[in-house]
């Protein structure tokens, strides 16, 4: 058993803890990154507007933001790793191509993981992140599973913070959207035979975005249960945010969209009985005051929003269970919703299984529990409500 796999096994259970380090703990930990922060600020002064200076937003139509790269941020972060030096302290550079050979490991054998995060303008007039320590921990666990050198968690959080600070002009006004951030870890060194890359790149780019689904943030989505293909299998990679996990779902997702569905629900690979995930988000099933979501058993991604909704719902009096949910149980549920960084909380209007369609909401109306969770979560994320969990991390 490889050292990387043993480390991943040790790290994975931490993703299901009730709460990772608080904001105050995160800030103390990030204090170790002062030297890197100083360097980032020095480089940023030459490559981007002075920190805190926000350009006129006339070039972006904040009322028509979609989820794409139309308004990609001007500055990105890049750090390099070599066996001799480990990770360098990174730098901020103009958004543009990365330099790698056709023989780069990531292009041939797919050694890559990524994260999804958001920065938002808050009701307090500042820009904030949401639980970046959780993303840093998951990034570390994913690197171990993929036999890659992990990025120190303090460097990860500081790199994300610096990327946001130097792209403040791309943060939408409150309520208009968010600055979506995409941290990447890639095996960029050249290699011919199968093996770990000899060099790695840690990069972060960003873009101003709106709602993930075309209908809008609170418009219910229609799902179909997939029975031919599976997203993950026991002992596989389903619990890791590896780049290679996502393109295989396109064959079913695109077919579903042709037939009028927003996305696909996948079942467990052993029995085709239990719900696992939607293509890129976790799923919750509601019956009365009980909310169930599939347990983390290695085939399901430990979503940061998933964990937050579990904790938030429990604090609001719901009986939240991380337990297997059969497709038949889901078809009898009062309500279903999905969660993820991109989708936040999305109400499911209907689910179709073997030709039978179960409607959960009135046309165009979000389910009551989904709406409650969305409002409670986003109020914390935008500092409209008191953050008793210490989830919000101020950038500027």
UniProtKB/TrEMBL annotation:
Keyword DNA damage in annotation: no
Domain of life: Eukaryota
Keyword Magnesium annotated: no
Cofactor dependence: pyridoxal 5'-phosphate
Any Pfam family the entry gives: Aminotran_4
UniProt-listed InterPro entries: Aminotrans_IV (IPR001544), Aminotrans_IV_CS (IPR018300), Aminotransferase-like (IPR036038), B_amino_transII (IPR005786), BCAT-like_C (IPR043132), BCAT-like_N (IPR043131), BCAT_family (IPR033939)
Catalysed conversion reaction: L-isoleucine + 2-oxoglutarate = (S)-3-methyl-2-oxopentanoate + L-glutamate; L-leucine + 2-oxoglutarate = 4-methyl-2-oxopentanoate + L-glutamate; L-valine + 2-oxoglutarate = 3-methyl-2-oxobutanoate + L-glutamate
GO molecular function, one term: L-isoleucine-2-oxoglutarate transaminase activity
Cited CDD domains: BCAT_beta_family (cd01557)
Keywords: Amino-acid biosynthesis, Aminotransferase, Branched-chain amino acid biosynthesis, Pyridoxal phosphate, Transferase
Residues recorded with modification N6-(pyridoxal phosphate)lysine: 241
Listed EC numbers: 2.6.1.42
One GO process term, biological-process aspect: amino acid biosynthetic process
UniProt-listed NCBIfam families: ilvE_II, PRK13357.1
PANTHER family: AMINO ACID AMINOTRANSFERASE, BRANCHED-CHAIN-AMINO-ACID AMINOTRANSFERASE 3, CHLOROPLASTIC-RELATED
Family: Belongs to the class-IV pyridoxal-phosphate-dependent aminotransferase family.
Protein name: Branched-chain-amino-acid aminotransferase
Naturally occurring in which organism (per UniProt): Chlamydomonas reinhardtii
């Amino acid at each position: 058993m490889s050292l990387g796999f043993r480390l991943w096994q040790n790290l994975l259970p931490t993703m299901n803890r009730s709460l990772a380090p608080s904001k105050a703990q995160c800030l103390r930990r990030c204090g170790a990154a002062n030297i890197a922060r100083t360097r980032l600020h020095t480089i940023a002064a030459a490559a981007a507007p002075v920190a805190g200076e926000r350009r006129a937003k006339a070039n972006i139509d904040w009322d028509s933001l979609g989820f794409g790269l139309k308004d990609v941020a001007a500055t990105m972060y890049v750090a390099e790793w070599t066996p001799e030096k480990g990770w360098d302290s990174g730098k901020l550079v103009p958004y543009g191509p990365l330099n790698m050979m056709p023989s780069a490991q990531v292009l041939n054998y797919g050694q890559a993981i990524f994260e999804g995060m958001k920065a938002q303008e808050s009701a307090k007039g500042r820009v904030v992140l949401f639980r970046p320590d959780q993303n840093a921990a998951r990034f570390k666990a994913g690197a171990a599973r993929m036999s890659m050198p992990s990025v120190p968690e303090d460097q990860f959080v500081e790199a994300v913070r610096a990327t946001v600070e130097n792209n403040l002009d791309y943060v939408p006004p409150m309520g208009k959207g968010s600055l979506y951030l995409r941290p990447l870890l890639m095996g960029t060194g050249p290699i011919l035979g199968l093996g770990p890359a000899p060099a790695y790149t840690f990069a972060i780019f960003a873009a101003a975005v709106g709602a993930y689904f075309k209908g809008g943030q609170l418009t219910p989505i229609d799902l179909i249960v997939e029975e031919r293909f599976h997203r993950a299998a026991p002992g596989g990679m389903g619990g890791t945010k590896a780049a290679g996990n996502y393109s295989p779902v396109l064959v079913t997702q695109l077919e579903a969209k042709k037939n009028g569905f927003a996305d696909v629900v996948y079942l467990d690979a052993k029995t085709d009985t239990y719900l696992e995930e939607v293509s890129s988000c976790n799923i919750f099933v509601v019956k009365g005051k009980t909310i169930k979501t599939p347990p983390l058993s290695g085939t399901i991604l430990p979503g940061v929003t998933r964990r937050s909704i579990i904790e938030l719902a429990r604090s609001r009096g719901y009986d939240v269970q991380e337990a297997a949910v059969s497709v038949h149980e889901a078809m009898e549920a009062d309500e279903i919703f999905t969660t993820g960084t991109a989708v936040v909380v999305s109400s499911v209007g209907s689910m179709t299984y073997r030709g039978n369609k179960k409607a959960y909401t009135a046309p165009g109306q979000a389910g009551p529990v989904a709406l409650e969770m969305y409002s409670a979560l986003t109020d914390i994320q935008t500092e409209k409500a008191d953050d008793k969990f210490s989830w919000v991390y101020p950038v500027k």
